[in-house]
Design a protein that fits this description.
Length: about 140
């Protein structure tokens, strides 16, 4: 009886802690596909990413990444909506995603900003704190 109970409870316990999806895994590919589409639409080119942080927990995921060209170089934002922002804001991409109905959806994203807006996302969206980077104390 105990073994049967353990079989049913193990998936619940295993999904309770934040997980870093391994590059190339199904979860990683699905999360990054959801992130890639709006970025490529905004910069009018194929992109790849330098991942700074990616974690998922309880159907939520957070990604902190730097978009790069498919060759792995910095993007030239001339002719994009970010052309004028490059001097005023940081080139960051923060994305909060939610897994529903069999796929990942973007809940919130910030691309080019001078403020750490994601700091309030755990409370505002009721997302698990464990998926976010630990804030740096100055």
């Amino acid at each position: 009886m105990r073994a049967l109970l353990l079989v049913f409870l193990l998936p619940l316990v295993a999904g309770a802690a934040p997980v870093v999806p391994q590059k190339g895994s199904k979860e990683f590919r699905e999360i990054m596909a959801a992130v890639t589409d709006p970025v490529e639409d905004a910069v009018h080119q194929t992109v790849t990413f330098r991942i700074n942080h990616i974690r998922m927990e309880k159907g939520w995921a957070f990604v902190d990444a730097l978009p790069l060209t498919k060759e792995g170089k910095r993007i030239n934002y001339a002719g994009t909506m970010f052309e004028d922002w490059i001097e005023e804001a940081d080139e960051v991409l923060w994305v909060l995603l939610r897994y529903k109905r069999g796929r990942w959806y973007i809940v919130e994203k910030e691309f080019f900003t001078a403020e750490g807006t994601w700091i309030d996302w755990p409370r505002y969206f009721r997302a698990p704190q464990g998926i976010f980077p630990k804030p740096e104390i100055e």
